[in-house]
Amino acid sequence: MVTSIMMAAVVACGAAPTAAEPPDSTPVVTPTPVWTPCPNAPGFECATVPAPLDYQHPQARTIELAVIRHPATDPAHRISSMLFNPGGPAPAIDLFIREYPFFPQEIRERFDIVSWDPRGFGRSTAVQCFATAAEYAAWSAQLPAGFPVGHEEERRWIDLNAELGRGCEQRDPVLLRFVSTTDSAHDLDLLRAVVGDQRLTYMGASYGTLLGATYANLFPDRVRAMVLDGNVDPTAWYDHKSPLPTFLRERSDLGTAETLEQFLALCSRAGRSACPFAADNPWATRVKYELLLHRLLIHPQGIFTYALTASTVRTALQLVHPVDAALNWSSLAELLQDLWLGQTPQSTASMASVPTTPTEILPSAAGDAWPTAPAQQQSYSGIEQVYALVCSESPNPRDPQLYGPLAKFATLRAGTVGPFWSWVTEACSTWPGEAAHRYTGPWNRSKTPILTVNTIFDPATPYRSALATTAQLGNARLLTVAGYGHTTLNNPSSCANAHESNYVVRGVLPPRGTVCLQDTPPFTQPVSDTSAPPS
After folding, report:
1. Which of 174, 297, 392, 529 has the greatest count of CB atoms below 10 A from its CB?
2. In sequence order, what are the residues at sequence separation of 6 or more whose Cβ sits closer than 8 angstroms to the Cβ of residue 251?
3. How many CA atoms lie within 13 Å of 55's alpha carbon, on the beta-carbon side?
4. pLDDT > 70: what percent of the chain?
5. Are the CB atoms for 231 and 451 separated by under 8 Å?
6. Taking Cα atoms as reference points, which of 383, 339, 314 lies closest to residue 142?
7. Greater pLDDT, 1 or 479
8. Could you tell me which of 521, 512, 514 has the C-alpha nearest to residue 483?
9. Please, is 385 exposed, middle or buried when counting C-beta atoms within 10 Å of its C-beta (0-12, 13-18, 19+)?
10. What is the mean pLDDT of the chain?
11. How confident is the model at residue 323 (pLDDT cuts 50, 70, 90)?
């Protein structure tokens, strides 16, 4: 049965053409932005940068990029700027403000750190398929929480996503063709010129690793230093021969399942005082989790259905320790124990970040650190911004009816956390836009060594993706972090920070095979890591 489903999906995906790189001779004027203090974000400066919609035709339509920077804190020893994409794909500005303190101190001292909302997202020229935020909220409220379960919910999911695609096509069909990773890589090169750097210093996390790898191969002579943290496998992203949707090809379902296994085992070993969901041993804790999810499939508790709970688990596994009010391993243990006891966790602190709809895979861009004109007040960051990028460039089955069987396949290989990763790209089956420019390799053209970084148990970008990416880049070195969670930036390692600083500031890669520890393992007190390089 699974084999026949996959064969049908191969036919449905179709072949993905490789777009040629826009000609280098195309004249693009480097703008000079006006930097002003960002409201409600002390120390940060904001600007708007015009960019060509299509770099092959720069004199045609222009879009706007919302850009933010934090100047080097030691200007007397400033080296240059470092551009940063935090992943998603998503609006970046508010994520950057939140994550700025986690950058290695020496990098903050010696670099202006610059980020931007990528084209199609957030405060830049954005894909928006509804006229107002209220209309978008009304649409998204109809989606099943987490992912669909059963024929009725599957039909509703498919129909609503088809409706979304039709709305996007009606509002701005041209924009949908020019929000690809390749287009953003050309924006990245424009921003490099805007900040006055001859060569790019860059850090990318999660999806930002794909953007970085694309830039390094489109502009192999323009990289000064590049750190890729939490790696997307570029070959898997563009693989049009596989029958699987994007994130099953990336094996994100397996990464999540492996990290969940670690969460349950470490929870048990930590005991109930440190992890409330713990049972007597790892096997008993695993059984407890499976029984809870089975119970919720039959008898939901308040808003907590089987699908919402499984999706909440997926989200929480990305962050081991608390950052602001975000879900993390500790708050997940509390939430699961409340549900186990039959207590709907309405008062749990982590409820503020429970993803009640699937649109919340997209990090919030609701902050107020950007000057907002009256015409922008109805803008919003919706899931269509993710679809506009992913669906336009990464092959996915074009038959909506294949996603239910594919979700069953994901469940067979990854358990309760599998179906989300299948259904999350179902909208691609009816998405109207196809990328005009799509770089799909080769991936080994960079003249500068690249530093890749990955935790061993990353639930979204598995360690095997880092191994594959490092091999494909060729001129790259992998720094392994023996730990958990999605990206080292959000799950800190002083050892990894020291190696990243040494590379970004001095160009010194860590020795081959270097393995760092995280500063604070799950459910424990901080530990000392002596494997960092000497200062």
Report:
1. 392
2. 236, 462, 464, 465
3. 23
4. 87
5. no
6. 383
7. 479
8. 521
9. buried
10. 89
11. confident
